[in-house]
Amino acid sequence: MPEEKEKKMIDIYVMGRRYKVPEGLTIMTALEYAGYKYVRGCGCRGGFCGACSTVFRNKDDYKLKMDLACQTAVEDGMFLVQLPFVPSVRTMYEVDEIEPEKDDNLLLEHYPEIARCVSCNTCTKACPQDIEVMDYVQASLRGDIDRAASLSFDCIQCGLCSIRCPADIKHYHLAQEARRIKGKYIDTHSEQLKERVKELDGCVYDERMKELVKMSKEEIKIVYDKREFKKGE
Ligand code: SF4
Ligand code: SF4
Ligand code: FES
After folding, report:
1. Which residues pair with 12 in a beta bridge?
2. Could you write out the DSSP letters of every residue in 50-114?
3. By residue range, what is the domain housing residue 118?
4. Tens of pLDDT along 150-184?
5. Which atom of ligand 1 approaches the CA of 171 most closely?
6. Would the CB of 52 count as within 6 Å of ligand 3?
7. Are residues 146 and 104 both part of a single domain?
8. Ligand 3 pocket residue status of 43, Cβ below 6 Å
9. Residue 26: beta bridge partners?
10. What is the pTM of this model?
11. CB–CB of 137/122 below 8 Å?
């Protein structure tokens, strides 16, 4: 393919070993081009699942950088390592047994390290979703679960914030708990959602789903464009 031939080749280093890869690939596709096969640390490939946190160093730059492997382009002279996962421990709790109305320090009790936040804002700068991470930590510290949940709504659980935090805070686990509490105890419950869950439990959509998975992308687009909305949705 002539277009392929014209692509400039650059050097990347994976665990210290040099590979030549075409310029413009993401870290994920460059590693695959170099012959590596992802068995962990890869999911959606579109920046949504948070599975592909990666540590790298650019040429002549001592700083360790972190980002999503599926969203970051390789650069000439880049040094790469892969993380199988971010090893941050989640506090165990039963969401059904939580009583947020009686305990406004719940998040602080489950994640006492949030009291050590030094307001350096490193977590916010590390976030590929542009979330105000430090602000949701501060909201959690004040017991404002609603705000912590709302601020962290777009979190993809990649863990890049936690890797750099000098206070060893587990931001995304903390925020996930806030969202669970908000969903269960703070937000108004939707009757439509209840109905839909009941329908799913009753396998109402199984046949339709089988039809959908057999469709081409174009056919699915037509179905999507013609979808009907119920009043009030
Ligand atoms: S990186 Fe850690 S210490 Fe710094 S602002 Fe974020 S939560 Fe606070
Ligand atoms: S808040 Fe943390 S875990 Fe969530 S998307 Fe941002 S960096 Fe990733
Ligand atoms: S593979 Fe899902 S965010 Fe990168």
Report:
1. 19, 78
2. ---EEEEE-TT----EEEETTT-B--TTEEEEE-S----PPPP--GGG--TTT-TTHHHHH-GGG
3. 95-186
4. 999 999 999 999 998 999 999 999 999 999 999 99
5. 7
6. yes
7. yes
8. yes
9. 73
10. 0.81
11. no
